[in-house]
Amino acid sequence: MTEASMAEIADHGPGHASVVDRSGPALVEMQDISISFGGIHAVDGASIDLYPGEVVALLGHNGAGKSTLIKILSGAYKRDNGEIRVKGETATITNPRDAKAYGIETIYQTLALADNVDAAANLFLGREIMTAWGTLDDAAMEAEARKVMGRLNPNFRRFKEPVKALSGGQRQSVAIARAILFNARILIMDEPTAALGPQETAQVGELIKQLKADGIGIFLISHDIHDVFDLADRVVVMKNGQVVGSAMTSDVTKDEVLGMIIIGKVPPGATPGPGASRD
Ligand SMILES: Nc1ncnc2c1ncn2[C@@H]1O[C@H](COP(=O)(O)OP(=O)(O)OP(=O)(O)O)[C@@H](O)[C@H]1O
Ligand SMILES: [Mg+2]
Fold it and tell me: pLDDT tens digit string along 107-129?
């Protein structure tokens, strides 16, 4: 992170638009995306985008289609319709490996860590660094792990312990480090703070600020409206697979966002989507 970007964050806080870079194309644009399971339109003509350094929160009731939309981006599901563009170019994403090649990484609520091994082993799981003799290069992996963890979470010292011994916030930082180690530019976080206490939630908030300052874009799925207002630059509300509306977080109140979630009513500060209620 540059000194300028650190100063910017100190001056304006994480949600300030000045960290967001809208001078070039969006990191990712999903346009008119649809998918059905049997007869159910899980996602129905949804469009969302994300710029470098931006946190876009996806909100909506259970079953609104948030996870399904994001699983299309991560290559877990194949869309029936719609287009995905990465930095302005049409992207072909049909499996998770394609998504990773475009710098799209997902951190699931379960974190998917290997509990019995340490942070470095987790960072390089399946992508180990080898020596010229074909053995695991533990020294190189630990050095890399210290570098990336030092940037994300400078207080982290527990490099020699299995990750099951770590706190929830520390485990989250290992999962994020693993994603950014392999050059993630677009990070998807599905309910990152759902299982965490207040202190650890604050820690994840710090991690997100670091990532923003590095120009990474984040789709944040969360049920916690307070977290969302602390962390997100923009909110997108979904209902019945459709986008109800979207808004800069600074242009709407929490009550107005709750109104979008519950009855699909779009306030003056927001832009209506196809799922906006018509009365
Ligand atoms: N693999 C699947 N097979 C069948 N139906 C599915 C599948 N995945 C999702 N659905 C359905 O699609 C709809 C959208 O679900 P989704 O999980 O995307 O919602 P969500 O907004 O993430 O909700 P939550 O807040 O509960 O996580 C729901 O009706 C769900 O039952
Ligand atoms: Mg979900």
Answer: 877 778 899 999 999 999 888 99
Q: List the residue whose alpha carbon is closest to atom 4 of ligand 1.
A: 37
pLDDT at 153: 81
Considering the entire predicted model, what is its pTM? 0.87
- Cα–Cα distance, 15 to 234 (Å, whole number): 9
Pick the residue whose CA is nearest to atom 29 on ligand 1: 63
Q: Looking at domain 3-103+185-272, does it have CATH number 3.40.50.300?
A: yes
Contacts of 35 (CB under 8 A, 6+ apart): 41, 42, 43, 68, 72, 77, 78, 79, 80, 81
Of 40, 41, 77, 110, the residue with max ligand 1 atoms within 8 A of its CB, to mutate for a pocket test, comes to: 40
Helix, strand, coil in percent for the chain, rounding step 5: 35, 25, 40
Q: Determine the distance separating the centroid of ligand 1 and the alpha carbon of 243, expressed in angstroms.
A: 15
- Report residues whose beta carbon is within 6 angstroms of any ligand 1 atom: 37, 40, 42, 60, 62-68
Instruction: Report the nearest atom of ligand 1 relative to the CA of 66.
Output: 21
Identify whether the C-beta of residue 114 lies closer than 8 Å to the C-beta of residue 125.
Answer: yes
Which ligand lies nearest to the CA atom of residue 236 in the structure? 1
DSSP per-residue codes, 184-227: -SEEEEESTTTT--HHHHHHHHHHHHHHHHTT-EEEEE-S-HHH
Mutation choice for ligand 1 from 40, 68, 188, CB with most ligand atoms inside 8 A: 68
Residue spans of the domains in the chain: they are 3-103+185-272
